[in-house]
Design goal:
Blueprint (H helix, E strand, L loop, with lengths): L2 E2 L5 H9 L3 E2 L1 H6 L5 E6 L5 H12 L6 E7 L10 H7 E3 H4 L4 E6 L15 H14 E7 L1 H11 L4 E15 L13 E11 L12 E6 L3 E7 L4 E4 L9 H11 L25 H18 L16 H8 L7 H4 L9
Parallel strand pairs: 1-2, 1-4, 3-4, 3-6, 4-5, 6-7, 7-12
Antiparallel strand pairs: 8-9, 8-10, 10-11, 11-12
Helix pairs in contact: 1-3
Length: about 350
């Protein structure tokens, strides 16, 4: 099943040219299932590019997805028109009565600022709190992951002596994880950040599991299984040319920036970079969507129940609602039986 996004969103044309199935409102209405409700809180400056990156990955799932674009109140991005924001985004304040199967929180170019000095930090904290009762699974990216860890666990970030910038080898530390199904033992992921979270700062006794790391780039992804949260510190969603665009932007600004490591063939910025992470990006988001589908409720109003009352697959298999063997049936009409 395809992703459903607004008809005139710029991402639609790009995705259709790439062969990603994009659904119209009329076609979606004819299908006898409940689409997964996925919200994207887009904090990146280039809204259109980021929308496209995440819609591409989420839309590659065989499930029907409704993607809602979310913004923070009172923050006017500089790199996109007010018309685009008005046409396609909804402030969180207008969405807080809704429930979502998944929420993606992107990175933001505010890494070196203390969290409390970011203008929208108070609202972002309110969104994280809201997610406890209104979001089944939270997937945070780069600075968004650092911010979520700070909010939920008080974990600090540390400024790096120089920017971690390039495509680095990573290790699969949890091959049995549902999120890493199909992953090879090692793989490449783009990294672009000035700060890091360190393993020694992770709180002891908390339900945090390291899924990926790198000798050169440090921690990459954590899982919080009981609350179905993923924290991804690197940019597996990036396009082939994202690092090249960042590099050329900084060069034009006269900033001191190294050529991204392991990215341009021969470290020559005049040559076209090769994408070595695309397949794992699709695997990761496909696995996340599948896990959300297998564990969420058919009845959206039940999202946010006490995790002790509902613990993903195991509880769903006992109750027969929204997970396990009956997960697929739960997303059709409630009177359907599993096939």
């Amino acid at each position: 099943m395809p992703i459903r996004i607004p008809a005139h969103l710029p991402a639609r044309d790009v995705l259709e040219r790439e062969g990603v199935m994009v659904m119209t409102e009329d076609s979606a209405g004819r299908q006898d299932i409940r689409p997964l409700q996925i919200a994207l809180l887009n904090l990146m400056p280039n809204k259109i590019r980021t929308e496209t990156q995440f819609a591409r990955l989420v839309g590659s799932s065989p499930l029907q997805i409704d993607m809602t674009l979310m913004s923070v109140d009172g923050y006017a991005p500089r790199n996109v028109s007010a018309e685009h924001m008005l046409n396609f985004y909804q402030p969180w304040s207008e969405l807080q009565e809704r429930k979502f199967d998944g929420l993606i929180v992107t990175g933001a170019p505010v890494e070196t600022m203390p969290f409390e000095e970011v203008s929208y930090w108070p609202e972002l904290e309110r969104i994280f709190e809201w997610s406890r009762k209104n979001v089944h699974s939270l997937f945070s990216i780069c600075w968004g992951a650092q911010a979520a860890l700070r909010h939920f666990h008080g974990t600090p970030k540390h400024e790096l002596p120089q920017k971690a910038f390039g495509v680095y080898d990573h290790r699969n530390l949890a091959p049995s994880s549902h999120y890493l199904r199909g992953f090879s033992d090692d793989f490449s992921i783009p990294v672009s950040r000035w700060t890091e979270v360190r393993k020694e700062d992770l709180p002891l006794g908390e339900d945090l599991r390291v899924l990926m790391d790198s000798d050169e780039a440090g921690l990459c992804m954590l899982e919080e299984p009981r609350l179905r949260r993923l924290y991804m510190f690197n940019h597996i969603e990036y396009d082939s040319n994202s690092l090249a665009e960042e590099y050329r932007r900084d060069v034009e600004r006269g900033e001191r920036i190294a050529v991204p490591a392991n990215y341009f063939p021969g470290d020559d910025p005049s040559r076209e970079p090769k994408n070595r992470w695309r397949s794992h990006a699709h695997l990761l988001f496909g696995n996340w969507i599948n896990e959300v589908y297998q564990t969420t409720w058919f009845d959206l109003s039940k999202i946010g129940r006490n995790p002790e009352d509902y613990h993903g697959r195991e509880k769903g298999q006992e109750s027969g609602e929204g997970s396990g063997a009956d997960g697929a049936a739960a997303f059709g009409r409630p009177d359907r039986k599993a096939v």
